[in-house]
Specification:
Number of helices: 5
Oligomer: single chain
Structural class: alpha+beta
Largest sheet: 7 strands, antiparallel
Number of strands: 7
Length: 183
């Protein structure tokens, strides 16, 4: 059997094990991370369209969420990292891209909808200041994000397609669609 087929068979086996782990034990994040590991050829957090679709459509977290208590991000929050996250669809996508599941710092009910706020810290590799990300996930699955990058830019984005970065060159202001509950 040639090496290509061995690699494909190994990846298929790893995918099967990840899906079985998800079904039997309900470990949503472990299954998503397993899929990312199977389909990723590099350690970078970039994802294919298929991986994003899988992460955002299949893996739904239970409500209210448990605190994963993983605030230290594995990857540096730079402006280019944030631009790759433009158009994200779920908290799971953010968690995979950050390399950790975050730490819940607040639970509450804003505008009558329950939410949980997740916090991450990104330590820079080249002597810059630390980066911070705060994501508020609502019980309907929508997420709003405030990000302070390690290169000093403030960025706001959400699952409705908004991406705002006044400090980027050129400045970016994409408003996204209007949430159904805002009418």
């Amino acid at each position: 059997m040639n090496q290509t087929y061995k690699n494909r068979a190994l990846r298929a086996l790893m995918l099967g094990i990840s899906l079985l782990r998800f079904i039997v034990f309900g470990f949503v994040v472990f299954a998503a991370a397993g899929l990312w590991a199977v389909f990723s050829n590099s350690p970078a957090p970039a994802q294919t369209a298929f991986q994003r679709a899988v992460a955002s459509r299949i893996f739904v977290q239970p409500w209210p969420p448990d605190d994963p208590n993983e605030e230290n991000a594995k990857y540096e929050f730079t402006s280019s990292w944030a631009k790759r996250m433009m158009g994200f669809r779920s908290l799971t996508e953010l968690q995979i891209a950050a390399g950790s599941r975050g730490k819940i710092t607040e639970r509450g009910s804003g505008a009558g909808m329950p939410f949980a706020s997740y916090h991450w810290i990104s330590m820079p590799v080249r002597g810059r200041t630390a980066g911070f990300m705060l994501a508020r996930q609502y019980s309907d699955g929508n997420v709003g994000v405030s990000l302070l990058t390690t290169d000093g830019r403030e960025i706001a984005m959400n699952t409705f397609g908004a991406f705002i970065c006044d400090g980027c060159r050129p400045p970016v202001e994409i408003r996204g669609s209007t949430p159904t509950w805002s009418h």
